[in-house]
Amino acid sequence: MKIGVYFIVIMSFFVACKTKNSNNLKTSDVEVTSTDISKSYFINKLGDTIPKIVKSNESWKQLLTPLEYNVLREKGTERAFTGDLLENKTEGLYTCRGCGLPLFDSKHKFDSGTGWPSFFNVLDKNLIIEDTDYDLGYPRKELTCGKCGGHLGHVFSDGPKPTGLRYCINSVSLDFVKTEY
Fold first, then answer.
1. Active-site residue, selected from the candidate residues 17, 145, 148, 168
2. Which of 67, 107, 148, 170 could form a disulfide with 53 if both were Cys (CB 3.0 to 4.6 A apart)?
3. pLDDT tens profile 75-99
């Protein structure tokens, strides 16, 4: 039953991405050119084409709180143990606060003791972009949303089985959608 609910939530999101014309975006907020088509979309593991969102800094500032903007757009970090989703134990999906893309399932969440929500797996590795940052003087795998480019956090190789990964994510980068039965 649980898998069916998740499948419906995820598929309805992807169908909306493929069929809606992003009515909430102004034409000036979206930048898609025919010579740069490879950067205007990405494909998930199901083969769905998902358009990327590109907005001006001013548009993001109007949509996000100052903390959300700092973390999602300027690659900041919220203080440890302050996030509203850290202690969340409700079943559901964690989505990108910038664009609503489903990223993590509550069944993959665990208490890492670090002060940020942690997950040992993602819904689809194609939905998250990994890059290396050296902001602290050593290499870390930075995570950004594949759809809007929002900074999520980092992934480390000290997580639990079966993946051995710890996706350490800022609460302010996420929203939560409760599973409905």
1. 168
2. 148
3. 999 999 999 999 999 999 999 999 9
Confidence (pLDDT) at 18: 37
pTM: 0.77
Ordered by where they begin, the domains of the chain are 55-178 (2.170.150.20)
Are the beta carbons of 24 and 100 closer than 8 angstroms? no
Beta strands, E only, the chain: 41-43, 49-51, 92-96, 102-105, 109-110, 118-119, 128-133, 140-145, 151-156, 166-169, 174-178
Across 155-181, b (16+ Cβ under 10 Å) vs e yields bbeebeeeeebbbbbbbbbbbbeebee
| Active site (annotated) includes residue 168 | yes
pLDDT for position 137: 83
Under-50 pLDDT residues of the chain = 1-38
**Local structure of 128: helix, strand or coil:** strand
Bond prior to 66 in cis (omega within 30° of 0): no
3-state secondary structure of 132: strand
pLDDT of residue 170: 98
